[in-house]
Amino acid sequence: xTSTIRTTNGVYTAAAGQARELTExxxxxxxxxxxxxxxQANVVAWIPEVDLTEPVTRYFEYVQQSVDFNRDLxxxxxxxxxxxxxxxxxxxDKVTGIVKDQTNKVADQTVQQARKAQDLANExxxxxxxxxxxxxxxxxxxxRAAARQADKEAREQYExxxxxxxxxxxxxxxxxxxxxxxxxIERLVSADSE
Length: 194
Description:
By secondary structure, this protein is mostly helical. The longest helix has 107 residues, at 53-159. The chain has helices spanning 2-43, 53-159, 163-172, 181-193. The chain is 89% helix and 0% strand. The chain is rod-shaped. Among the domains are: 2-99; 160-193. Helix 1 (2-43) packs antiparallel against helix 2, helix 2 (53-159) packs across helix 4 and helix 3 (163-172) runs parallel beside helix 4 (181-193).
């Protein structure tokens, strides 16, 4: 668009420059002719009197026509450039509208995909968390079972003993001897694990 305007301005400038040069040359030629004529008129007195009003009038009418022509040409070029600019601007507005619509569609789709991905990630994170809790639950259950088994194995050595035998074992370890058989066994098992 800018190059078209520059080209148009160049054409107008060239045409205006040529018209100016022609006008200046015509004026210079006319001036030289008048000077020669005046010099010869002084020398030759018999030359009849010439009325220069008509040629001067015609000359300036020609100059005015050239100016009018150049003005009309410049106005036409300006109208064409303005029309082209309006058309280009309308096309640019249409393209901008299409690009905005497409951008909005792509953005909406991207947001939807991101939300789906986020939902999927949340679901997977929840599944992992649930699996972790279940694993911890199973681990605790296994620990309790192991503790019960260890307690059972630790108690087995004391199960067949009498209260008196249990009291003697407690005395050897300097632990209290009072309580039921179950309490005495529990005291011995606790001492063994320390």
